[in-house]
Specification:
The complex is a heterodimer of chains A (about 325) and B (about 325). With about 325 residues, chain A is α/β, with parallel strands linked by helices. Chain A has twelve helices and eight strands. Chain A has a single domain, classed as 3-Layer(aba) Sandwich (Rossmann fold). In chain A, the strands form two sheets. A six-stranded parallel β-sheet of chain A has the order 2-1-3-4-8-7, sandwiched between helices. In chain A, helix 1 (about 5-30) packs across helix 2 (about 45-50), helix 4 crosses helix 12 and helix 5 runs parallel beside helix 6. Chain A starts with a helix and ends in a 21-residue tail after the last helix. In chain B, helix 1 packs parallel to helix 7. Chain B is of the alpha/beta class and about 325 residues long. Chain B is built from twelve helices and 14 strands. Chain B has two domains: about 1-185, Thiamin diphosphate (ThDP)-binding fold, Pyr/PP domains (Rossmann fold, 3-Layer(aba) Sandwich), CATH 3.40.50.970; about 195-320, 3-Layer(aba) Sandwich (Rossmann fold). In chain B, the strands form three sheets. Chain B has a seven-stranded mixed β-sheet with strand order 3-2-4-5-7-6-12, with helices on both faces. At the A-B interface, strand 2, helix 5 and helix 6 of A face helix 3, helix 4 and helix 5 of B.
């Protein structure tokens, strides 16, 4: 990686952090409706993965999707506009926080039903296999998703059909408020992949470089026709499951302990001490992030609401009589 | 015009569409080597090969997910549910994903897939394998639901479904596969969302579809001998629902009977009756009657099963009641 790439990763991680902090405020002001799941603490996972992919590689994730949206290159203003339900949002204000996507950037959503996007990811990978292209599908999901039937059906199918897919479990230790130990018969989640004879490994998700390097290697292995691969990436969400989380299931000491492993702090140190990048350069980037956030909020707030006609738009591609 | 069976009509539509478009492929349980549980895809595997005729594990969510994901990449999958009863195992993917992705992401995704699903009772398969849950699926905007009653419509509608850019549930009736009918030579399509007068008459409008078209025709033959001329309107599509020919006929006959195989409560008949009253209340000379399945899980015993299913005598009786 060159210096520009190192800095781009830093910029993205800080942008996600500040975007999520801003989103929390907008939510508290009543400007964002529905559910809001913040990615704070997990930035290194998505950033490490997506910085390693090639343009032909598809990305699909669950509902904690703002980080992925930023990493694939969607401008923050379009993300905030979607959060505010505006017509200028990624999904024209019809999807909201959990349904960000951008086909042009090979980002296939933002899916809100736990585990349901895993079989869809198998289908995306099938699309590339069928067409004979060399794209790989990166499918991200939480630890909670590994307990639902969809996970097992999709992962099994991927091996039977040797699909070009990387299954990425973001193990943030809790499915909502239920810890991995209380919900999964196997607490080392990657071992579930053994049941389907899929190679797997554990990655430290607080270290973006470690995630990036693992993803780069694994993507090439899958691209070469090696069939599916499974990554369990250990991480932690510093905030609650969603904005309405009373957090009765974990101690503040535990959160504080993980906060010492802040992925942005770890990467910042890496840039300063290993890559010899000056703190002033990083401070410049941080200011640029704040400017982009400010612009994003202004853009979103001044964007128009969807027109009433939008209610009936895009139900079908081919509109026919009746209904 | 050639006289062929419903099975041959469906098979021909699939075969011709696969010959016409490389992007069309089949996936499902036993569709390949076995040749299809109902022999609809017999010979396909040998001709088209395993890339385009894909046997799957018994995993309906994976089948539907793979269909959805590959459709999103531009392929045109035809997924077979061995029976519509098993579609419940993929319910989330059919109604919560396929039906919503185009809308929820502001038109970014297209899901041009077909789900073929045979259903219906009368074969002593017991309560879990004999259902007619058509109305449930027709409840969801974003999904198209078609259920042909003749070989001609089956072939034409399946071709339209495969060429449609929207997800289509194509409901077959397992006891209609051997029914013969005239089918036009060459390539033709039948539009989705258009009802059809299958038999002209002037005394009573009989609204029906799928298997119940056969029973309604028998009832109409009997009634004709008594001088009662029944006009049969075949809905063919449940969503979009084309009420035009129904209302036109009702304004002429002023009397209507709706015949469906599924349960009466919250069913197709309930919807059609409500729309008749909403759109043509002043034309009614008698209350609209419904003929439907008794409100019981279908029993195995042949006599009991037939008691629960609508019979020709029930239709004849209902017609006489509205006269």
């Amino acid at each position: 990686m060159n210096k520009e790439q190192y800095l781009s990763i830093y910029y993205q991680m800080v942008l996600i952090r500040r975007l999520e902090e801003e989103a929390a405020q907008l939510y508290q002001q009543g400007k964002i409706g529905g559910f809001l799941h913040l990615y704070i603490g997990q930035e290194a996972v998505s950033t490490g993965l997506i910085s390693a992919r090639k343009p032909q590689d598809r990305v699909i994730t669950a509902y904690r999707d703002h980080g992925v949206a930023i990493n694939v290159g969607i401008p923050a203003k379009l993300v905030v506009a979607e959060l505010l339900g505006k017509s200028t949002g990624m999904s024209k204000g019809k999807g909201g926080s959990m349904h960000m996507a951008d086909v042009e950037k090979n980002f296939w959503g933002g899916h809100a039903v736990v585990g349901a996007h895993l079989p869809i990811a198998a289908g995306l990978a099938l699309g590339d296999q069928y067409a004979g292209t060399d794209g790989v599908t990166v499918c991200m999901f939480g630890d909670g998703a590994t307990n639902i039937g969809y996970f097992h059906e999709a992962v099994n199918l991927s091996k039977v059909w040797k699909l070009p897919v990387v299954w990425v479990c973001e193990n943030n230790q809790y499915g909502m408020g239920t810890s991995v130990e209380r919900a999964s018969a196997v607490s080392e989640i990657r071992r579930k992949a053994d049941g389907y004879n899929i190679p797997n490994e554990l990655v430290n998700g607080m270290d973006v470089m470690e995630v990036h390097q693992a993803a780069e290697r694994v993507l090439e292995q899958v691209r070469g026709g090696g069939g599916p691969y499974f990554l369990e990436i250990t991480t932690y969400r510093f905030r609650g499951h969603s904005m309405g989380d009373p957090e009765r299931y974990r101690e503040q000491e535990e959160v504080k302990c993980w906060e010492k492993e802040d992925p942005i702090g770890i990467y910042r140190d890496h840039l300063i001490f290993q890559q010899k990048i000056g703190e002033t350069e990083l401070a410049d980037l941080e200011r640029k992030v704040m400017a982009e956030i400010k612009e994003a909020v202004e853009f979103a707030e001044s964007s128009p609401e969807p027109a009433p006609e939008a209610l009936y738009e895009n139900i079908y591609v081919d509109e026919t009589v009746g209904g | 015009m050639a006289k062929i069976t419903m099975r041959e009509a469906i098979s021909q539509a699939l075969w011709e569409e696969m010959e016409r478009d490389e992007k069309v492929f089949i996936l499902g349980e036993e569709v390949g080597v076995w040749g299809g549980t109902y022999a609809v895809t017999k010979g396909f595997y040998d001709h088209f090969g395993e890339k385009r005729v894909k046997d799957t594990p018994i995993a309906e969510a994976a089948i539907m997910g793979a269909a959805i994901g590959s459709a999103m990449t531009g392929l045109r999958p035809v997924a077979e549910m061995m029976t519509i009863n098993f579609a419940f195992s993929a319910f989330d993917h059919i109604v919560n994903e396929a039906a919503k992705l185009h809308y929820m992401f502001g038109g970014q995704f297209r899901v041009p897939l077909v789900v073929r699903a045979p259903g219906g009772g009368g074969r002593q398969l017991g309560a879990t394998h004999s259902q007619t849950p058509d109305a449930i699926f027709a409840h969801f905007p974003g999904l198209k639901v078609v259920a042909p009653g003749t070989p001609e419509d089956a072939k034409g509608l399946l071709k339209s479904a495969i060429r449609s850019d929207d997800p289509v549930l194509f409901i077959e009736h397992a006891t209609l596969y051997q029914v013969r009918g005239e089918v036009p030579e060459g390539d033709y399509t039948t539009p989705i969302g258009i009802s059809k007068v299958q038999r002209p008459g002037k005394h009573v409008t009989l609204i029906t579809y799928s298997k119940m078209l056969e029973l309604s025709t028998k009832a109409a033959d009997q009634l004709a001998q008594e001088g009662i001329e029944v006009e049969i309107v075949d809905l063919r599509s449940l969503r979009p629902l084309d009420m035009g020919p129904v209302i036109d006929s009702f304004k002429k006959t002023n009397r209507a009977v709706i015949v469906e195989e599924g349960w009466q409560s919250f069913g197709v008949g309930a919807e059609v009756a409500a729309r008749i009253y909403e759109e043509a209340f002043d034309y009614a000379d008698a209350p609209v009657k419904r003929v439907a399945q008794k409100e019981v899980p279908l029993p195995y015993n042949r006599t009991l099963e037939q008691m629960a299913l609508p019979q020709v005598t029930d239709i004849v009786k209902a017609v006489k009641e509205v006269l």
